[in-house]
Structure formats: structure tokens, C-alpha cells
């Protein structure tokens, strides 16, 4: 699966884009779960565009429903983005194929399960299980996390997409086809992630499970990894690159 964008989602590119469409998309990337509502001055500062240019682009985005604006001058993503998200989910082949798989992984392991792709310098959650839990220690669908923040899924995505994150951990992933992260992003959490490949060897993303460290043992994590491998295989996908699968046949 190709990256969705080569630009940073935080809007901090060194040189702001000059094209009209590029500017609009650049401004949309300023919004995040951490900062869902922004004022003109915030968007201009974050995007690197001057206020006049930013305001013109914002007016167009509001007109077409990609942004909403309040009377006190705050902007936030509008309903048009929700429509596009729904279309993406309904037409994405990999989402359709893996939604049930991710749910099965969560049910069998009793842990939070998700599927991530890399988009520029972010990892984006395309699927997560729908189980109810007492604690919110998962990433919501559509949410992005900087690759630099680490975590098991980030290291798997980096290893197989050529992202420069941690060469030693990337080598481990390429050798073992999984990565376990303990307390890297949150001292209370442990996560394990495996790469997912199409039959032709195309890398499509990373499947990950996340648990509270106090509730699982190393053996529990190993069993979770085996569950992920089995469920991915049942979905007619693989957790090993094509060359490894071919070699295993001889």
C-alpha cells in the first residue's frame, strides 16, 4: 500500500506549497485529534502561509463543507471529510478484508487490536476492534501518531517502508517479522506488531495488539503473536514477505 502523503501532517513543511489545491490540503493537515479546533492565526503559523492566503483557502474549504467555522473564529473539519472517510472505508479492499480479522484477534487475545499504515511521517489507524474496555489505551480509527513516537507498529512500518526511525530495531523486524515494544510510548503498555503482506509480497501495513503490562506475561504476548499470524493467514494474507514464503516451500 502506498503512502497517503509525502508531506508532514503537522503542517510544518519548510516551504509552504504554492499550488491552490496543495495549500488547501496543507491546511487540512493542520488539524489533529490533539488540536481539532484552530483559529486563523494558529493555522497560518502552523502552515507557514500568510494570513491573507490562509483566509482565502479557509473560506473555500468552509464553502465546500470540508471545514466548519464558529462565530468566535474557530475552524474544525466539516461533514465533507466524514463523507470521504465513509467512502474510503467502503471502497478500501484491505479494510474490507481485515475488519473481521482485527475483531477476531481482539476476541481471541482479549486485547486491543488494530491495523496501521504509514502516511508520510505518521502512522495511521485504519481499523481497530470494537470491543468495550475499561481503559482507553488504543488509537481511534483515522487517528495518526508520529512515527518518531515509536511503538511496535511504528517500527514494523518503518522497517518495511524504508522510513528512517531506528536501524537496530528495523533489523530485528526484518529478521524476526515482528516487534514487541514495552513501555516505549506509555510505561504502562506493551504492544506487539507484525507486518502484513499480499500474496505477491506487497507490504500493506502492520497488525498490532496492545495490552496493559501489568495484566500480561511474556508467554501471553507470544500467544497473541501466534493468534495474529493465524488470523492473518485465514484472511489469505501473510506475515512474511513473499521471498520467505517461497523459500519455506523448498
TrEMBL record:
**Highest taxon of the lineage:** Bacteria
GO annotation terms (biological process):
negative regulation of DNA-templated transcription
Residues in domain HTH iclR-type?
A: 18-79
Could you tell me the keywords of this UniProt record?
Transcription, Transcription regulation
SMART domains the record matches: HTH_ICLR
GO terms assigned for molecular function: DNA binding; DNA-binding transcription factor activity
Q: Name one Pfam family in it.
A: HTH_IclR
Q: Where is the signal peptide?
A: none
**PANTHER family reported for this sequence:** HELIX-TURN-HELIX TRANSCRIPTIONAL REGULATOR, ICLR FAMILY, HTH-TYPE TRANSCRIPTIONAL REGULATOR RV1719
Protein name (Swiss-Prot/TrEMBL): HTH iclR-type domain-containing protein
Amino acid at each position: 500500500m502506498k503512502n497517503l502523503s509525502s508531506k508532514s501532517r503537522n503542517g510544518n513543511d519548510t516551504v509552504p506549497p504554492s499550488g491552490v489545491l496543495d495549500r488547501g490540503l496543507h491546511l487540512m493537515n493542520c488539524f489533529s485529534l490533539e488540536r481539532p479546533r484552530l483559529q486563523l492565526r494558529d493555522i497560518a503559523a502552523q502552515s507557514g502561509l500568510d494570513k491573507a492566503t490562509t483566509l482565502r483557502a479557509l473560506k473555500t474549504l468552509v464553502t465546500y463543507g470540508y471545514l466548519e467555522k464558529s462565530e468566535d473564529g474557530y475552524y474544525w473539519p466539516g461533514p465533507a471529510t466524514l463523507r470521504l472517510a465513509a467512502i474510503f472505508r467502503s471502497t478500501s479492499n484491505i479494510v474490507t478484508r481485515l475488519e473481521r480479522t482485527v475483531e477476531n484477534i481482539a476476541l481471541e487475545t482479549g486485547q486491543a487490536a488494530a491495523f496501521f499504515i504509514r502516511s508520510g511521517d505518521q502512522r495511521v489507524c485504519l481499523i481497530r476492534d470494537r470491543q468495550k474496555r475499561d481503559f482507553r489505551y488504543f488509537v481511534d480509527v483515522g487517528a495518526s501518531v508520529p512515527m518518531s513516537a515509536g511503538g511496535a507498529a511504528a517500527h514494523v512500518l518503518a522497517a518495511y517502508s524504508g522510513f528512517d526511525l531506528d536501524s537496530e530495531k528495523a533489523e530485528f523486524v526484518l529478521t524476526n517479522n515482528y516487534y514487541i515494544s514495552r513501555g516505549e510510548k506509555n510505561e504502562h503498555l506493551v504492544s506487539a506488531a507484525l507486518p502484513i503482506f499480499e500474496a505477491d509480497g506487497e507490504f500493506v501495513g502492520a497488525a498490532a495488539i496492545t495490552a496493559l503490562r501489568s495484566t500480561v506475561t511474556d508467554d501471553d504476548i507470544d500467544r497473541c503473536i501466534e493468534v495474529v499470524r493465524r488470523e492473518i493467514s485465514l484472511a489469505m494474507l501473510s506475515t512474511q514477505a513473499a521471498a520467505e514464503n517461497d523459500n519455506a516451500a523448498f
